[in-house]
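Hi there, hope your week has been kind to you so far. It would help a lot if you went through both lines with me. No rush at all, and the record is pasted right below:

***
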Amino acid sequence: MSLMYAFVDGKVALQVVDGQLRIPSVIPTLPKEDVKGVLQLDNGSVAVSILSEAELSDHGLALYDVRASRLQMDPTEFSDMCRAKQLLFWHNNTMFCPTCGEPTFRSDKVEKKCPKCGHLSYPPLAPAIIVRVEKGKDEILMVRAKNFRSDHYGLVAGFLEPGESLEECVVRELMEETQIKVKDIKYEGSQPWPFPCGVMVAFSAKYVSGEIHMQEEELVDAQWFHRNALPKLPDGMSIARQLIDAWLNS
């Protein structure tokens, strides 16, 4: 079944079916002047970025925040939608060769080639770490970042820098944001995070030393929380919440 993954200013066009948000299977004909980019996906569906939402309501569609929509969507369908969003971002930003400026063509589902100089372009990925720091058996380090959209607390996270291992990134981010030193860094899992092209790599670590000195440019608060007195937590689909729940259930 062909689906339409339509995005307008970072929001996604969805329909409501039996109380659940769904990707539409009916693809409306959109005016050319409203379409910024179109990408045919390998499963026959299409991803499209639209400049105006005027045509969508006529087809029973409405715009939803991509992050918020995951709470009301089937996890597999949400994952497929995020992949479409990430590939569309790549497509829209590689229409011309970054080396010589020639228009590119899609030579594979995740490859574009310049017909003039042969330069190959692939979907970008921006790895980031997120870490659960445990202090003894009953406390974890939690932070509230300035860019959080709600009043929840999360875990220290940050993007990988060139020439840096994931474990080195864990150590650096903790030092920069809280001045905390850790040991026993352990890989716990990963999660695609297409906003627009990230992947979150999750770790746990044990507290060694240091008093919390918060990086005020990025954080609103940072403190140790006891398992019996936790603040408002991230939603259940995030890898941050999965890290916290795993610790609570251990």
